[in-house]
Amino acid sequence: MTSYPIQSIASAPAKSKPVLGQLQQAFGLIPNLAGVMANSPELIKAFVGLFQQVHAGTFTEAEIQILLLTNAVTNSCTWAVAFHTMLALEQGVAAADVEAIRARRAPADKRVAALSALARKLIERRGHVTEQDLAAFIEAGFTREQRLEILAVSAASTITNYAGTMTEPPLEDVLQRHAWQA
After folding, report:
1. Which domains does the chain have, with CATH numbers?
2. Least buried of 18, 113, 131, 141, by fewest C-beta within 10 Å?
3. Which intervals hold domain Carboxymuconolactone decarboxylase-like (predicted)?
């Protein structure tokens, strides 16, 4: 169980309340992890600001979810894996590709596989990817600019993944069917 309270809009520190309101509006609920992160107004504001930038970039929502799911699995954050499994499926990512990522395997779809592979390698190798890794990403149809943009997604997911691992918030009922173990 978490050692931090899961804040609501009513209970959160004053500077966290507007951010929780944004999340409530976006998702129809305040995810437990965001409720925990709201204990630090600086953390929750940085998190939401960065995610707004990520979602305004050139990746599709499905591609963003592939990146976030891959990062959650690579960082072994059980809450984030469940959350991004749900969102990836909602965005139309093939169930078989989602399962492959969750099992740390390459997805069958070559574009999804290239996206997931570069995200995983960036984390595992702490940014020290090879020219071959970067070329495979381009060959799958992505751009040189997206090779850099993927760093913003990794930064955003690192906040989520580390916060989830540090605080271990419980899964919401809607996420239970997507529960995952490292």
Report:
1. 61-178 (1.20.1290.10)
2. 131
3. 41-118
The dihedral sign for the CA sequence 173, 64, 148, 142: positive
pLDDT at 182: 83
Q: Which residues of the chain have pLDDT under 50?
A: 1
Alpha helices in 107-143 (DSSP H): 110-124, 131-139
| pLDDT (0 to 100) of residue 71 | 97
Quick: pLDDT tens for 92-126: 999 999 999 999 999 999 999 999 999 999 999 99
Residue 60, token pair as written in the block: 């599709």
The pair of three-digit structure tokens given for residue 44, joined into one six-digit string:
């929750």
The tokens 């931090």 sit on which residue?
4
Element (H, E) at 165: helix 144-167
Q: What's the angle, vertex CA 20, arms to CA 6 and CA 158, rounded to 5?
A: 75
How far apart are alpha carbons 37 and 31 in whole angstroms? 10
